[in-house]
């Protein structure tokens, strides 16, 4: 491919694929600074490459430059508008940077586009709980319905897979189990923050626990400020850090 000469005299390729491959090699060697230079060059020549955008966004998250990371994830969401994970990353960046109102607004926007997305609803329940917002009951009820619908879909897929596996024989069954193990490993990667929120069942009046377990793509959050609805003493502000998953970041 064609090449360009840097000011140091080093010859580097201008092919974005080669540049990203070199960046990946440096990344594997834990030389993040050099990796960043090559991924950034690759992005200049091919600004719509999702894997490069994802790596650069993750790099800025690691450096605590969340506003910069948001720019890359916003670009990714424009390229893949139906991929909800980019928008969840944006909302998580706002949360990590302490901009909880913008984070809440982003989650609400995601919910409007993806009303059945369970992870988004879990984040909405969490934020509404932390900030003492009246929308908690509404989102908690929606979360229960979405989880139930998701469970039914998974049961149908499981039953369909079993029937299909019996038809294909043992060979197909082994491939199915292998795929399920890989999927399970991917879903269980990262750290989980468990939370159980009690809400009042509208039909029976009894309180039922809602599973608000979620996996955040960013990591630990700084302490969040209490609102007047939660506490009138600012000095008592202590929500604690959350151990959240990083399973959406590039491997």
Quick structural gist:
58% of the residues lie in helices and 6% in strands. By secondary structure, it is mainly alpha-helical.
Describe the structure.
This protein has about 250 residues and is mainly alpha-helical. It has helices at about 15-30, 30-45, 50-60, 65-80, 85-95, 100-115, 120-130, 135-170, 170-185, and strands at about 5, 10-15, 195-200, 205-210. The protein is flat, with a radius of gyration of 22 Å. About 60% of the residues lie in helices and about 5% in strands. The strands form two sheets. It has a two-stranded antiparallel sheet with strand order 1-2. A two-stranded antiparallel sheet has the order 3-4. The model is unreliable at about 1-10, about 180-205, about 225-245 and about 245-250 (pLDDT under 50). The relative contact order is 0.09. The chain contains nine helices and four strands; from the N terminus they run E-E-H-H-H-H-H-H-H-H-H-E-E.
What fraction of the residues are assigned to beta strands by DSSP? 5-15%
- Number of separate strands: 4
What is the N-to-C succession of helices and strands? EEHHHHHHHHHEE
Main sheet strand line-up = 1-2
- What's the N-to-C terminus distance? 28 Å
Biggest sheet descriptor: 2 strands, antiparallel
The average pLDDT is 75
